[in-house]
DNA sequence: TGCTTGACTTTAC
DNA sequence: AGTAAAGCCAAGC
């Protein structure tokens, strides 16, 4: 079977340990897609969190903020809740301290 | 078959 | 510090 580009991305995201977060650029790099961070974001946009066991909530942008899609409409709150339950600490501005909670394989 | 959009990143001013 | 532009690939119409 042929591993699609997204399949590799899902696998990489699924490798993120609990209580850690990764940036799109990092996921792209680990997936052999360095420089194509948009593909990672787009991949997570197309999947269904209900049918997929991909911890999409552990993926944030380079600023440590939670990216949201117009379709999710407020899903950032859910994502933040999930991360907080895993032990991820948020800054007063609602940002994540990437230097501390960033996934380092 | 071709153009537009989209959960991004990085560099530069 | 915040704003602007370029680069990349895939799916949708």
| Strand tally | 2
In CATH, the topology is named Arc Repressor Mutant, subunit A
For the record, the count of structural domains works out to 1
Helix/strand-derived class? mainly alpha
What would you call the shape? Answer: globular
Q: Report Rg.
A: 13 Å
Helix content: 40-55%
From the structure above, extract its key features.
105 residues; mainly alpha; Arc Repressor Mutant, subunit A; two-stranded parallel ribbon; 41% helix; globular; DNA-binding
Q: How would you portray this structure in words?
A:
There is one protein chain. By secondary structure, this protein is mostly helical. The protein has one domain: Winged helix-like DNA-binding domain superfamily/Winged helix DNA-binding domain (Arc Repressor Mutant, subunit A), CATH 1.10.10. Helices cover 41% and strands 4% of the residues. The protein has a two-stranded parallel sheet. Helix 2 packs across helix 3 (37-46). The mean pLDDT is 90. The protein binds a DNA duplex (13 and 13 nucleotides) through helix 2, helix 3 and strand 2.
Short description:
The chain is mostly helical.
């Amino acid at each position: 079977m042929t591993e699609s580009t997204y399949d590799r991305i899902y696998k990489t995201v699924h490798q993120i340990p609990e209580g850690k977060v990764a940036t799109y650029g990092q996921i792209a790099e680990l997936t052999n897609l360095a420089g194509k961070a948009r593909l990672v974001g787009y991949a997570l946009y197309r999947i269904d969190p209900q049918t997929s066991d991909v911890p999409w909530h552990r993926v944030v942008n380079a600023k440590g903020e939670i990216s949201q899609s117009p379709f999710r409409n407020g899903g950032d709150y859910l994502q933040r809740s999930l991360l907080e339950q895993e032990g991820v600490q948020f800054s007063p501005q609602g940002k994540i301290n990437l230097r501390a909670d960033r996934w380092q394989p």
